[in-house]
């Protein structure tokens, strides 16, 4: 079985170098690099060498690519035009509609409690990252399904031996795997008070995962989540992009 796509590897490497430059220029440090490095290594070495399933790669690096692209259209990125200048290039009615949609997400994340921190997530503070998480997973899932349709003529990838999950389920599992992390209480509080990201973990699991997954109809279809599930917000789902 050798269906690995070399373009994913090239893409992830290119993003890594761009990211290193960005971190050096903006903060004078590369302290965020180990996490990114770990992710790229994980995708390049472990996933592709092991199983070469692109459901896993799209769920891991694909979601991160989608996440970063969506930042260009979050509550901060939207304010910059195609030349990178601060300039409102949207109509007023677009801005109003966008703001209404983001309000839903602010309230959703405000209600998540992070046990380690003993605090609730701050929906406004983390809005940009939450918009990127939610948009990124949708973009990557659509890209994955398009790849299956166009490159495999709609034929599903082979399943992982011994793992009774279909490829759509593996995509979401791969995403959760990348986000998985652990914090000490001090770091958790610091993250809530000064961090831009939602916590990876809370009493109901992972906000970065649950927040985006519970808004997404493709997730609830993949895992057949019923209406009472915390993973299925149904009509309460928030969507910006
Ligand atoms: Zn982000």
What spatial form do the alpha-carbon principal axes imply? globular
Instruction: Flag low-confidence runs.
Output: 1-8, 30-34
Mean pLDDT: 83
Give the distance, in angstroms, between the N- and C-terminal Cα atoms: 36 Å
Small molecules held by this entry: zinc ion
Describe this structure as you would to a colleague.
- The protein has 241 residues and is mainly α.
- It has two domains: 51 residues; 184 residues, Collagenase (Catalytic Domain), CATH 3.40.390.10.
- Helix content is 58%, strand content 2%.
- A two-stranded antiparallel sheet has the order 1-2.
- β1 and β2 form a beta hairpin.
- It is globular.
- The two termini are 36 Å apart.
- The structure holds zinc ion.
- The site of zinc ion has 4 residues, from α3 and α5.
